[in-house]
## 1
Amino acid sequence: MPFTAVVGLENLKLALVLNGINPQIGGVLISGPKGTGKTTVVRALADLLPEVSIVEGCRFGCNPDTPEFLCEECASRVESKETLRTKSRKMRVVNLPLSTTEDRLIGSLDIELVLKEGIQALRPGILAEAHQNVLYVDEVNLLPDHLVDDLLDAAATKVNVIEREGISISHPSNFVLIGTMNPEEGELRPQLLDRFPLHVNVTAQHSIDDRMELVRRNLAFEDDPMAFRDAWTDRQDELRSRIEKAKQILGDVVLKDYHLRAIAMACDALEVDGVRPDIVISKASITNAAFEGRMEVSLEDMKIASQLALSHRTRRGGLLEPPSPDDIDRAITKATEISQRSKTRKSPTEVPPEEEDGEKGTRLSGGSFGRQSRFAQYGEQEGKKKLHKK
C-alpha cells in the first residue's frame, strides 16, 4: 500500500515523515487498538525513506561521516591510512519479531574463532542490520524484559556490545526506533517509553466517508496492486521530493533563542520528567519547518512538535499523567508570548499584564499560569539578571 494512499492518520504519517527527514529525532511510538492501520503505515514508509552513506564492504554499514562510531574493522583501516570508499544505499525497515532470541538480536560469538580472527568471528544480529535504518518492533509492549534491556542499551549509546566469556566486541547501532502497541494488551515499561521521542495515539474513529474510501482503496489494491501503486506514483514522488528538499535545508533552519526559551519554559511548567522532551521538541520543530519549506521555526512548528513529544511523557517523577493536548497547546503558546515580550520590555523589572493578575491565572494539570506559577517567575528572574548586569 503506498504511503500517500493511506486514509487519515495524518499525525502518524507526519511523525514518520519527520523521522525520515531527520533520523536524529530517533523514532516514534504508535499506540492504538487493533485494525487501525499501524503496521500498514510503517511498512508503507519504506518506499519513502532517503538514502544514507555507508562504508563500502562494511558488514555493519558504518557511516563514514561519523568516525567516532566506526566499527573495529573500519577503524583499523583508518589507522592504517587506508581511504574508506563509500557508497549510498536506501534506508530500510528492519523487523524485530517478538520471538527473537538474544543472540539473534545482539549477535553471536564463536569464542574459538574470536581468539583467531577477532571481530570477523562475530555473527551480526538485528541491531547490526538496524544501523542507519529503521528498527520496527510490533507489539513492543509484549517484548521480553531481557530484550528490552538490550534495546535500551543500544538506543542510549548508539553502540551494540557483545560480551561472552570475558571477550567484548562492539559495533555501531544507530537506528530509528518505531514501535506499535495495543494498550489493551499491557503497558510499556517507563524506561522504554521514555526512549520513544515521539508518540501518536491512533484511534478507530473514522467518518462514514473515510470508512467508505478506505474500503474502496483496499479492494482496489488487492485487485491489482501494481495498477494501484502506479495510480499513486505522482503523489509518492511529490512527497519523496519534499522529504529530499527538507533534508537539504534542515541544517540551515533557525531556531531562535526565544523559541528555545519558550520550549524550556513550557516543559518546565508542565513538569515533564528529564530534559529529553526539550531536545526532542527542538529537533522536531526544526524538522517540521524544513518539511514546510521554511527557514525559521514558528509557533505552529513548536505546537506540532510538542503534541508529538509530550503526549506520552510522565511528569513530576511519574506522579502525574501525561499532559492533555489542550494543556500542551496552552503551555507552549503562553511560554512563547512571555519569551517574546521579554525581548521588548522597556524596563527590566516590567511585569507582563497577565502576570500582574495572578488570581485570575488559568491553572493547568500540574502547572499554574497564575502569580505563583513558573511562568510568572520567569519575568522576575529575567529582570534580576538584567539589573545585575547593569
## 2
Amino acid sequence: MRFSDPSLLEMALTHRSFAFEHGRSVTNERLEFLGDAVLGLAVTDLAYSSFPELSEGELAKLRAAIVNMGTLAGVAAELGLGEELLLGRGEELSGGRRKASILGDALEAVLGAVYLDGGIDVAFALIQRLFWPRMEAYSRGEGDRDYKTTLQEMAAQDLARVPEYRVFERGPDHEKEFTATVHLAGREFGRGVGRSKKEAEQRAAREAFERLSRDGGGGRET
C-alpha cells in the first residue's frame, strides 16, 4: 500500500540496532506499541462478529492463537518484511531478518503506521486481509491451537490433575530434536517431537487432548 507520509513506513522498519549505530533517536518501538493495540482490537472485533457461537473463553483462545509472535512472524515473512528492515550490522550478521521477534515487532509497527496514515478503517481492512485466513483455519480446528492451555483446563475439570511435561533432547546444537511426554496422575497420555521444546510440548498436549476427548475424560477419578 502507498503511504501519504512515507516517513511513517521508514520509522516502522527502523530497528533500534540501526538507530543506535546511526545516531538516530527514532525507532519502531512506539509504533509497535500502537500497532499491537490496533491489531488486538481488530482481531477481537472480527472474532466477536464472525463467530457468534463461541464463548468468551473460546474467543480469548482464538485471539491468543492469532495475536502471538509466531503468527505475526509468519505473516511478516510472507510479506517479505524482513528484507525491508533497517538493521544494525550486529543484527544483520546474526540473522536478524529471520528472527521471529524482530519480524513480529516490525509487523506491529507497520500496522501502527498504517493506522496513523490511513485511519482505523484502512488498518482494520488490512488486518482482516492478512489475518482472516488464519482465524478461519483456527475455527475449523486447523492451525496452531494452544493445546497446553486446553489440556490443562480439561485435566483440571475431568481428572483434578495438572499435566506434567518431561522433555528430552538429542542431536547437535544446530540440529536439536526435542521429545516431550505429558503425564496425568503418573500416566503418560501424549508424546510429541519437535525442533523446539515448545513445539514438542504442544504436540504432546494435542495428542493427550485428543485421547482424552475420545475417551470422554478416560481416567476420571471417582
## 3
Amino acid sequence: MVFESEAEQGISLRQAALVAGFGLLIMAVAAPFAEFFVYARLVVSGDTDATVHNMRANGGLLMAGIFSYLLVFICDVLVAWALYLLLIPVNRALSLLTAWFRLVYTAIALFALVKLATVYRLIHASDYLAEFGADQLHAQIALALKAFRYEWGIGLILFGIHLILLGFLVYRSGYIPKFLGVLLLIAGSAWVIYELGPYFYPGVDLGYLMIAFSMELVFMAWLLIRGWKIRI
C-alpha cells in the first residue's frame, strides 16, 4: 500500500478528520432545524390550504428553513472532500468513488431544494395568485412540495450507498475503529432500504430504521474527539 504524503495532499489526516467532524456537526444542527422545526411545523400533510396559510404567515421561518437546508448541502460538499482525503491511504480509487456518491446526492438535493424555493416565491409573490387563481396556485404548490420530498428521497438512496462504501473504507483503514465502519454500513443500508420503501414495499412500516440514521453522529463524535490523534 502506497501512502500519499501529507505535503502532497496539502492537508494532514488529522486536519481532514476535524474538517469532516465540524462539517457533520454543523449539519447535525442545521438539518433538524430545517426538517423538524421548520418543514414539519409549516407543512400540513394532506392539507394544502393550511400549508399555504402557515407559509404565508411565517415567511421568515420558511426562508430560514430553506437556507438551513442549503447550509446542510454545502457542508455535504465539504465533508465529501474531507473524507476523501482522510481515506486516501486505504484505497484512493474507492475513496474517490465514495466522495462522488455523496457529491451526486448533494447535486440532486440542491436541485430538489429549488422546488422549495419555488414554493416560497409562489406564496409570497402576489402576481402569481392573480395569474393562476387560488386553486391552480395551491395545486402547483402541492406538486412542488411533493417533488421536493421525492427528489430528495431519490438522492438519499445514493447517500446510503455513500455510507456503505464509507463504512467499508473505515473498517479497512486500521487507523479508525472498526466498529465505526460497521455502524456506517448499517446506517447506509438503512437509508437505502427506507428510501426504496415507497416504490417496492409501500405497505411496510420502516419507522424502526430511523434509529440507524443516528449512527453517523457516532462517527462525527469520534472525528471531533479522537480525529486529531490519527496516525498511520
## 4
Amino acid sequence: MILEICANSYQSAMNAQKAGAHRIELCTELSVGGITPSFGLLKKVMAALTIPVHVLIRPRSGNFTYSDSEFKIMKEDIQQCKDLGCAGIVSGVLHANNTIDIKRTKELIELSKPMSFTFHRAFDAVPKPKESLLKLINLGVDRLLTSGQKDKAEDGIELLIELQQIAQNKLIIMPGSGINQMNSSLFKNARFTEIHSSASREISENTHSYFGNTPQTVSDIDTIKNILDTIA
C-alpha cells in the first residue's frame, strides 16, 4: 500500500522521505485546504527529494471555479512543474454549480502529460459523485483524492468503496482526510492501494492575534512511521 504524505513545507517534505513515505503531495497553507507552493519551495524540494513529488495546483483558497487569469496561472505553474521534473500534478476545476468543468480539466490533464494527474478533493463538492467518477475516467485522470464526500475519509468509507468498485483498474481511488495510524488499517482491509495523510503535529502556536490563530504544523516522522507499520 502506498502512503502519500501531504507536505506543507520543506521540513515536512524531508520528514516524509526520512520516515519512509512513498510519495508526497507538496502544497502550502493546509488550514485553507492547500494552495500551490512557491517556485522557490518547489525547486528546493525537487533538489533534495528522491521520492516522487506531486504538486497541488490551486491558485487560491475558496471554491474551484477560476477566472481566465487564475486558469492561466495554473497552466504556467504546471509547466514549471514539468520543467523541474515533478512526478505528478494534483488539480481540478469545477463549474459554479460544482459539476466538473470537463473542458478546463481536460486542458490541465493534457498539459500535465507525461506527469501523473490526480483530481483533488474538489470532487467532494460534486452533486453526483458516481456519474462524476465516470467522467474523470473518460478524461484519463490517473487518480482521485477524495474523502468520500465527508469531512473525514473514515466516515465516507461506504462511498469510497462504491467508487472503487466502479473505477476497477481504470483509476486509483485514494482516500484522504483524517487518516492516521488508528484508522489506516480500515482502508487497507477495504483493499485500497493508496492513502493520503498529512501526518502532522503542531510545532508552535501563534500568540499574536494580529496574525490569526492558526498553529504551525509539520508532517511528523514518528506518525508517518506508525502509519507505515499499520499498512505494511
